[in-house]
Amino acid sequence: MEPLGSEETAPLDRELTSRTIRLTAAPDQRVALATAETPRTFWAAPGEATVVGSGSATTIRADGRDRFQAVQDAARELFSAGDVHAGALAARPRLFGGFSFHDEHASAGPWGGYPRAKFDLPRTQLTYTDDGTWLTVNAVDTDAERVERRLDAEVERLRSISSPDAGGGPPGIVDRTRTTSEANWRRSVTAATDRIAAGELRKVVLAQALRVTLARPLLLSDTLSRLGERYPDCYRFLIEPDDGAGGFFGATPERLVGRHGRTVETGALAGTTGRGETPEEDEWLAAELLADEKNVHEHELVADAVRTQLEPYAASIRAGERAIRRLATVQHIETPITAELADDVHVLELVEALHPTPAVGGLPPKEALRTIRDTEPFERGWYAAPVGWFDAAGYGSFAVAIRSAVARDDTATLFAGVGIVADSDPDREWDEVQLKYRPILDALE
Ligand SMILES: C=C(O[C@@H]1C=C(C(=O)O)C=C[C@H]1O)C(=O)O
To answer: Which chain positions lie within coiled-coil regions (predicted)?
Structure first.
């Protein structure tokens, strides 16, 4: 990476020190997360190393309209002067976090402690790869000797952890409150389809929130482990505010964008049906979905928008075949899209260009976002927004934070949405929202 500041312009007290060691024995991911300091980080993604982060060596926050650029600038400064011995690529320093869905976002209610952008450099990071587990200790404004002492102490601590019991299953749900009644939903969907018919909109994704009261406190380490059993091919994440109160977590099937070298991987995921009772019924539902004009149209709007947004950056773009993505509770239409970059473009620039795709926003984007703001009676917060990580080179991986919830004390707020197009039926869309709550509801009740 091209360092931005010279020795003089990069103040010494921002210097990053990072040390890594390969562990011969490591606690499993659930135990590592259960015993981590707040704010904790968890990231598990298909084809990637799994990361458990403990505490924060430094936090980058941005609250302005230029939040994507502001995070990139702060990270460039952080990474410009460093004493980094990573040992393995996967164990290099990375910033983990995300953004709010809307540019205008209020850090209130369940979203207290969530600014418009926040990324943590974990103080201690465990990286689980196919060929071993690595421990990394990061620090800013500390001398190398202290960092090395912390590394030794952390190896000892990890060796002596006795496994906390898995908390005895899901916490259970004692009460539920919907943000949206069926009557209001019908009115909102009909208003949206009327506007689509009038040519003011082409697609809008409307969401609902569901607040549940839990019978017992939620153990997020257990919850993420349960989600991993049912959704091994999804992006599982946990982000916490600085004080650790109010974790945002989920298991999402949707990649926003990944960049490694000049290769960009993204895709379109939109169009939904349920799962069958038997393999034959699954196949029948999948075939029906792929042949359904409304769902294919809804999907193609997303695929076209992703290709168009990537074009200015790409030397080449390739879209794969439309296919079925089968999950434990639903089936989606998916089109993988890959591109080769013409230049060295930071992954956050691609995140900004793509978010929100019409899979979670709509078309035209501005009109759809205004409709979402005017219609939804709750704050989306970080729901359906980009979550993930990036490194000093501007490489990274981001998912769309759907199939998610934010939990605080004995409550959790779940979110789920659906794409509304011209011939959407309010009752069917209502049922689809309920289906999309299932991954998180099943992990809680
Ligand atoms: C908005 C959500 O899902 C999105 C909407 C889909 C649809 O309308 O078919 C499918 C997958 C996601 O892109 C959600 O799960 O909350």
So the answer is: none
Ligand 1 centroid from CA 419, angstroms? 7
Which amino acid does the sequence have at 216? R
Domains in the chain with CATH codes:
12-160 (no CATH), 173-216+254-444 (3.60.120.10)
242 vs 165, more confident: 242
Residue 105 is predicted with a pLDDT of 86
Percent of the chain with pLDDT over 90: 87
**CB 34, CB 164: distance < 8 Å:** yes
Amino acid identity, position 149? R
User: Which residues are registered as beta bridge partners of 129?
Assistant: 132
Task: Please answer whether residues 400 and 256 qualify as being in contact, where contact means their C-beta atoms are separated by less than 8 angstroms.
Answer: yes
pTM score over 0.90: yes
The stretches of 241-325 forming alpha helices (DSSP H) are 279-291, 293-310
CB 217 within 8 A of CB 171: yes
> Residue 416 CA: which ligand 1 atom is closest?
16
Residue among 272, 290, 297 whose CB has most ligand 1 atoms within 8 A, to mutate:
272
Residue with tokens 């289906």: 435
Q: What is the pLDDT of residue 88?
A: 85
Q: Looking at the predicted structure, is the pLDDT value of residue 4 above 60? A: no
Distance 359 CA to ligand 1 centre (A): 6
* 220 or 141, higher pLDDT: 220
- Measure 255 CA to ligand 1 centroid, in angstroms: 12
**Distance from C-alpha of 52 to C-alpha of 366, rounded to nearest angstrom:** 37
* Cα 310 from chain centroid (whole Å): 20
3-state helix, strand, coil split of the chain in percent (to 5) is 35, 35, 35
Place of tokens 């009261």: 213
If pLDDT is split at 50, 70 and 90, which confidence band does 13 have? low
Helix or strand run (H / E) with residue 2? none
ipTM comes to 0.98
